[in-house]
Each structure stands twice: as C-alpha cells, then as structure tokens.
Amino acid sequence: MRTTYDEADDILVLHLSEKPITKEVSQDWHTHISYAEDGSIAEIVILDASKQGAWPLLKAMLPKVQ
C-alpha cells in the first residue's frame, strides 16, 4: 500500500494495488473507489481530505518511513 497527499488540492490517494484500474465508482462527492479487473479495490481517492477528517488522521495511523 502506498499513500499520497496533495496538500495544495487537499486530495488523499490510497494506492492499494498496482493492478490496472478498469472501473471507477463515486461513493459520494468526496470519495471515489477504483477497481481492478478482478474486482479488487485498487485505489481510494478522498477529496477535501483534511476537511473530511481523513488527513492527518490517516497520516498518524500509517507506519513511519525512515
């Protein structure tokens, strides 16, 4: 799993798989889930992440990389 955060646009992306994305579904205005061909979740995008409370909450839960 890899996580990226765009501070300027307040977008958090959780990359759960490196599989190619074949389908994207909007759960609501702020949450979008991308699926691989086998139906597994490949990526989750959270818009306005800090406003939604997902960042820095998830940041605190992620393992620290040294």
UniProtKB/TrEMBL annotation:
Name this polypeptide is given: DUF2283 domain-containing protein
Organism domain of life: Bacteria
Pfam families for this protein: DUF2283
InterPro entries, per the entry: DUF2283 (IPR019270)
